[in-house]
Amino acid sequence: MSASGTVERDSLILAAQTGDPVAIGRLLAVCQADARRYARRHCQVSDVDDAVQESLLVISRKVKGLKAAAAFSSWLFTVIKRECRKLERMMFKTDALDEDKAEHQLLCKTDNDLRIDLAAALESLPAHYLEVVLLRDFEELTIAEIADRLGERDGAIKSRLHRARELVREYMIGPTATPGKTKDSP
User: How many domains does the chain have?
Assistant: First the structure.
């Protein structure tokens, strides 16, 4: 984005923060392409439209609370990623993470600390989990492409990827509690 485009976007964000409905509408229109592109990378194909729609709704309601216009892009991507995770949990019927706890733990770390923790989390994965994470999240291959490359079924790859991401998440923020169970229960 050019310097004038950035200044214009920042002005639009500032106007939206005042509650100006026209500015909010224009801001949502401007950021929709970025939102869709980011959702395509983090959601199942069938969830992209839902994730973008829900994310833009959240943005429109909460833009007033944004502290700095420069943080808008990061915030937008965080909201989209959160919506993608919600949709993924619904699809896999997993228990919700304590999002506030996880977000607090991650926000307390510097970018460098997060990079170090992520690298350590990836290094801790068994090879068959690491392989699918690298192919999906770093090489950006589809599930079908990964399955073809590894000679396995799509479902097996989805399960392995899901489990690998859970292991990384547990490494980064600790294990998630299962409702009704405590540390001491079997």
Answer: 2
Render pLDDT for 97-144 as a digit per residue (tens, 0 to 9): 556 666 666 677 777 888 888 888 888 888 899 999 999 988 889 999
pLDDT interval class at 146 (50, 70, 90): very high
Structural domain that includes position 155: 99-173
Q: Is residue 185 part of a domain?
A: no
pTM, whole model, 2 decimals? 0.48
State the DSSP string of 100-141: HHHHHHHHTS-HHHHHHHHHHHHHHS-HHHHHHHIIIIIS--
Give CA angle at 180 (91, 172), nearest 5°.
60
Q: Do 104 and 64 lie in a common domain?
A: no
Which residue reads 């990827």 in tokens? 161
Sign of torsion, CA 172 107 35 38? negative
Q: Do 23 and 73 lie in a common domain?
A: yes
**Cβ atoms 49, 108 nearer than 8 A:** no
Q: Is residue 182 pLDDT above 60, yes or no?
A: no
- 140 and 155 in one domain? yes
Q: What is the pLDDT of residue 57?
A: 92
Residue 65 lies in a domain: yes
Angstrom distance (rounded) from CA 170 to CA 173: 5
Distance CA 73, CA 62 (A): 14
